[in-house]
């Protein structure tokens, strides 16, 4: 998380015109930390899976219930199966990025945690820059 925040800090400095250039050695050190960090390994593994980012963004929009997520995806002609939605939400919850509330014995409603919101907003900012 600290590495993500540090990267965001560098982006903000660049936007303000401040000298935020990293030397190639500093960049290599930062990349090595990211690639070898056990703390980030689980988040990276989750983000590499199908629809993980979609599900984080659905949570950010308050669509943590399958019915709401399905309606949103259908409205925008996107696909997401209920099995994939549930699997990603369980993984996201396991990482502490969401929490679930039992609706009935078979259904859960997911809400984003503060940590999850921070990561989702950073991802949103990153993707907006591309």
Task: Supply the key terms.
130 residues, mainly alpha, Arc Repressor Mutant, subunit A, 7 helices, 2 strands
CATH class of the domain at 50-129: Mainly Alpha
CA-CA gap between termini: 21 Å
Mean pLDDT: 87
Structural class: mainly alpha
Shape verdict: elongated
| Second rung of CATH, namely the architecture of the domain at 50-129 | Orthogonal Bundle
- Per CATH, the superfamily of the domain at 50-129 is Winged helix-like DNA-binding domain superfamily/Winged helix DNA-binding domain
- CATH fold call of the domain at 50-129: Arc Repressor Mutant, subunit A
- Specify the helix fraction band: 55-70%
| Major beta sheet summary | 2 strands, antiparallel
How does this structure look, described?
With 130 residues, this protein is mainly alpha-helical. The chain has a domain at 50-129: Arc Repressor Mutant, subunit A, CATH 1.10.10. The chain has seven helices and two strands. It has a two-stranded antiparallel sheet with strand order 1-2. The radius of gyration is 17 Å and the shape is elongated.
Give a brief description.
The chain has 130 residues and is mainly α.
What order do the helices and strands come in, and which of them pair?
Layout: H1 2-15, H2 24-36, H3 38-47, H4 52-60, H5 66-75, H6 82-94, E1 98-104, E2 107-112, H7 114-129
């Amino acid at each position: 998380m600290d590495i993500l925040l540090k990267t965001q800090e560098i982006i903000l400095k660049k936007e303000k015109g401040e000298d935020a250039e990293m030397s190639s050695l500093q960049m290599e050190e930062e990349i090595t930390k990211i690639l070898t960090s056990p703390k980030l390994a689980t988040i990276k593994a989750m983000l590499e899976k199908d629809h993980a980012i979609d599900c984080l963004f659905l949570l950010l929009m308050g669509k943590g219930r399958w019915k709401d997520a399905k309606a949103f995806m259908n409205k925008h002609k996107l696909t997401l199966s209920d099995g994939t939605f549930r699997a990603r939400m369980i993984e996201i919850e396991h990482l502490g990025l969401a929490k679930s509330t039992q609706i009935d014995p078979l259904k859960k409603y997911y809400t984003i945690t503060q940590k999850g919101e921070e990561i989702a907003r950073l991802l949103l900012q990153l993707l907006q820059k591309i």
